[in-house]
Design brief:
Layout lengths: L2 E7 L5 H14 L4 E7 L9 H16 L7 E10 L2 H9 L5 E6 L7 H6 L2 E3 L7 H19 L7
Parallel strand pairs: 1-2, 1-4, 3-4, 3-5
Helix pairs in contact: 1-5, 3-5
Length: about 150
């Protein structure tokens, strides 16, 4: 069984998106070992975005060291794009091992992390980080069901 860990900067504040995320997590748990880890998002209200990104990076690094480096993928618009079938194949290539998917917060990625880890993309479009989490969870669920030949993807 694939072990999937989603590490996200910040929590979902939008109740509708939280409800959707919870639903997809519930749906995918019979097909994968799943863990959600949320790190604290740094405040950038005073305008120092670079400092906030560095604090977010430092917070993520405290978690990332627990996982094999070759299992960690950042979600970024400049990452590798997959269609749903290729995404399912990518996930299947990690069956029996860790797959760690990492979502940035509202400010995006610190440059140090972008050069350290491979990147995947949900789209060439940019999504708010809360919506990106829900889209990613749906695609994880879809990929699992594709590989199991379940009726969901048409």
């Amino acid at each position: 069984m694939i072990k999937i860990t989603l590490i996200a900067v910040g929590t979902l504040k939008n109740k509708a998106l939280q409800s959707l995320a919870d639903d997809y997590i519930k749906r995918l748990r019979p097909y994968a070992s799943f863990e959600l880890i949320e790190t604290k998002a740094s405040s950038f209200a005073k305008g120092d975005r670079d400092k906030a990104k560095k604090l977010d990076k430092d917070s993520l690094e405290k978690v990332l060291h627990r996982f094999p480096k070759d299992s960690i993928y950042l979600l970024a618009e400049q990452g590798r794009l997959y269609d749903s079938i290729a995404w399912a194949d990518f996930m299947d290539s990690h069956d029996g091992s860790d797959l760690v998917l990492v979502l940035a917060g509202a400010l995006g990625w610190d440059k140090e992390l972008l050069v350290r880890y491979p990147r995947l993309s949900l789209s060439s479009l940019t999504f708010p980080h809360e919506l990106a989490r829900v889209v990613l969870l749906e695609q994880v669920y879809r990929g699992l069901l594709i590989k199991m030949n379940k009726e969901y993807h048409y």
